[in-house]
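Minimal example, chain plus zinc ion.
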Amino acid sequence: MPLLRQLEFAFEQFATRVFPGRNVVVGQALRLPHRETATDAIAPQSCGRDAKLETKARELLRSLGANRIAKEIRIEWNPRLKTAAGRADYRHKLISLNPQLLEHPAEIDRTLRHELAHVLAQSRAGRRRISPHGPEWQHACRDLGIADEKRCHTLPFPATRYAPRFIYRCPNCRCDFPRVRRIRRAVACLACCRAHNGGEFDVRFRLKLLRL
Ligand SMILES: [Zn+2]
Ligand SMILES: [Zn+2]
């Protein structure tokens, strides 16, 4: 598999040249300032719970008086979602988002609010059964600032066109990072770089290509 080896080689070269570790002498001049490169080369979280989005969701719900649900709600990235942009599980107070949204950052907020509207509508309705995209949900959408939201869970971009062909995995947390295009540089897992290296690039958490 020459392609694979080639990619690995590219990773290797990039890694030794730009991220040599703190005590290795670098032979070549760097084209990019180190900090900028490091930020660029860290992949955003694509599986597991997202603390930032959870904070945002809690604030939104609290501002609407839904304090109990604000406390319980969890937001996760779930690579197993295929064509759905998001999913709301009221029983477990869990909202799942499709990591493909990470390549279309503008859609993340809207999808989050769409799913929050499901949870908010059901919490207001109590034990009463409501239809998924009925008037209660529409009301919740208005409260959450997406009055014109349509009843649709499919990705807001053509899934076939953007279907990830490359799956990368963090060797530490085993998170998968689906990508439409091949990564042509050393990229590390943000969650692990944050947890174990103060948020800076760490070659131990470099993403590895799983399959083409
Ligand atoms: Zn929905
Ligand atoms: Zn990781």
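The first strand starts at residue 42 and ends at 43. The chain has two domains: 2-45+162-211, 49-143.
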